[in-house]
Amino acid sequence: MLSLIHAISRGSVWITGALLLLSAVLVGSEVLMRNFFHYSFGGVDEISSYIFAIGVAWSLAFTLLSRAHIRIDLIYGKLGPRWRAALDILSLACLLAVTGLLFQQALETTLTSYEIGARSNTPLGVTLWVPQTLWTAGLGFFALVQLYLLVSIVRLFIANNVRQITALSGVKSMDEEIEDEIDEAKT
């Protein structure tokens, strides 16, 4: 199951990365068109903002699975492995609570936009529930990944397998960070 989650999150990062690149090309073209030909496509900034919001939402799960979210680990490194594992569980539970609230609000916003037929107040007049659905789905996927990881690491904690908890959701060690940097440099 974890390999499927990794595959989906990796695919979503590649797709959103390509969309962000396309957005940058559109914005760059828009700037050139305005400066040299006094012509504007119109709506490029709006489309870029939707792409950015959707991209961020769909990238969060990959960041979590890569153990790349920023944490303040002032005390974390000074504790024993079991206490670090307990903090990993606590941090993931807190993150899930925040994501759950964000997902709930996003879902309510999307449903309201759908029900009232809301459109953007721009020349494009985008039907708002469409980009909001993609954004909300990304947040929902992020919440599901967190829930899966939380259940997994709680089971591992009960089985006293703290090494596996660290591998799934712990703060990366300096050696792991260096290893990741070397691997990235090779590719």
Give structural notes.
This protein is globular. The model has no long low-confidence stretch (mean pLDDT 90). It contains six helices and no strands. The protein has 187 residues and is mainly α. The chain has helices at residues 2-37, 44-65, 81-116, 129-158, 162-169, 174-186. Helix 1 (2-37) runs antiparallel to helix 2 (44-65), helix 3 (81-116) runs antiparallel to helix 4 (129-158) and helix 4 (129-158) packs antiparallel against helix 5.
Number of strands: 0
Radius of gyration: 20 Å
Order of helices and strands: HHHHHH
- Main pleated-sheet profile: none
**How far apart lie the N and C ends?**
27 Å
Mean pLDDT: 90
Shape: globular
Number of helices: 6
Provide the structure class. Answer: mainly alpha
Helix content, binned percent: over 70%
Low-confidence segments: none
Share of residues in strands: under 5%
Descriptors:
single chain; 187 residues; mainly alpha; 6 helices; globular
Q: How is the secondary structure organized here?
A:
Blueprint: H1 2-37, H2 44-65, H3 81-116, H4 129-158, H5 162-169, H6 174-186
Helix pairs in contact: 1-2, 2-4, 3-4, 3-5, 4-5
In short:
The protein is an all-alpha fold and 187 residues long.
